[in-house]
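Example (one chain per record):
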Amino acid sequence: MDKCIKCQRELTRDEIGLFKKLVNRGAQKFMCLSCMSEYFEVSEEALLKKIEQYRAMGCTLFS
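Predicted structure:
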């Protein structure tokens, strides 16, 4: 199981997908939603909305 590079929390598929979508599609290491929220200076709710938006668009990173 993949873990966050910052806090070592286990990651969900959506967190991995969002990191790949926003940072680097070929990434091998990822951040959790909380750490991404801090990094991008946005709320976790905003990131969750982005996940739903990408899923609705049919992005294959979000199954």
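Caption: The CA atoms of residues 6 and 31 lie 7 Å apart.
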